[in-house]
Request: fold
Amino acid sequence: MWWLFFITGTLVLLYAVLFLFFKKWWSNAPVFEVKEFTPVTRLSVIVPARNEERNIHACITSVLQQSYPSELLEIIIIDDHSTDQTAAIVQSFQSPRIQLIQLTDNDPAAIKSPKKYAIQKGIDKARGQLIITTDADCTANTNWLATIESYYRQSGKIFIAAPVKINSYSNVLSKFQSLDFLTMQGITAAVVDKQFLNMCNGANLAYERSAFFEVGGFTGIDTIASGDDMLLMNKMVNKYPGRAGFLKSADAIVTTEPAMSWSD
Reply:
């Protein structure tokens, strides 16, 4: 059995060394600071939602409360065949900045990859130069969009991965999820900054609308249920090498809720 211990020990050592590299890369990744706040970019915030009546109000409220100029911001909510009050809650805001798209068809593409289909429908209607995607169970601080837009203009990146955190409560389950996700976000920042791997999270992404169409959108990956984030990032990086970046900033974080039970 000595060989089993040898193999296990070797893998643990390699794993530890890899994490030392990740830690070093994370530490070396610069924290972004907004140099000036003179936004000029029109933004389209895309939020796909299915049966999100518990979360959608807080999500929309956090976007409406952004410090970003309202004349440069539109919010597009795609109601993906919800059977609850999601659409009614969106309509209750009665804001000219909010556009609700209700999906009712049974397009084969929607069945194979419903989230990508919903995002695609939102982008088709969007008028913004920069697409921002988030999830219906996410909220952000008031400088979220201003920080993304400033980074976009200062860095020249056309695909921006930004941080996501999970709320941590007093129970072990939420703390485990929060810590696990925190680690993954650190790795994401490290490898994207070093152009070592392509990693991101669809709960907090930004990319040029024109670049999205230049790479054919989700064509070629639309038969895969997941991948509205990392698979799209791969397409962008292949088309535009060196034009993807990670926005390391506390102001750019969006927050989401953990699964509240083990069955969830």
About this structure: The two ends are 39 Å apart (CA to CA). The mean pLDDT is 92.
